[in-house]
Amino acid sequence: RTPTDEPPVSCFVMMRHPINRVISCYAFFHADEAAVRPFVTLAFDEQVAMATKCGENLALKYLGGDPPYYRDDGFREMQAPNLRHGSIDVAKQTLDKCVVGITERWEESLDNFNYYFPWVWKKDQTGVHEKLTHHAAQDDLPAATRAAMIDVLSVDTELYEYALQKFEEQNACRSSA
């Protein structure tokens, strides 16, 4: 099989597990605090609150049709109403048009991008990946914390799982070529 055997793709998107995205958000937007108080040392309620503060179901907002809205509070905190913004079906349709990468599977993602877009993607992106993964990950958190955060990030988690499935399909296509 070749890339032309697959449905046409017109973009690429890098997905990150929603909990890892929240941890990264904390490290980026609260860098001074994170330097002395890493995410894994925050209290349970602070960790769960950060999931909302850093943008509840943010991937859905970007891929599902509705733009994200920012509060004007200095650090551009995402508004995170209880209602979903965007449509999970539209977000999945968007992903169907993209080559999907998974941050946690960086090298395979670069290989997939290079397979579908060889004229665009440069193989050596090591420095970028190191910046993305220099802090704790979801596996470093207690199971109860992960479960509570997944509850807050439920739609993005569903979207991530869909993206992971697309990634596996595209990865299999590339590997069999």
Can you walk me through this structure?
- This protein has nine helices and two strands, in the order E-H-H-H-H-H-E-H-H-H-H.
- With 177 residues, it is mainly alpha-helical.
- Helix 6 crosses helix 9.
Strand fraction equals 5-15%
Strand order of the biggest β-sheet: 1-2
Rg computed from alpha carbons, rounded to a whole number of angstroms: 17 Å
Helix content: 40-55%
Order of helices and strands, N to C? Answer: EHHHHHEHHHH
Number of helices: 9
* pLDDT averaged over residues: 79
- Provide the structure class: mainly alpha
Report the major sheet: 2 strands, parallel
Distance between the termini: 6 Å
Shape: globular
Number of extended strands: 2
The unreliable regions are 67-84
Feature tags:
single chain, 177 residues, mainly alpha, 2 strands, globular
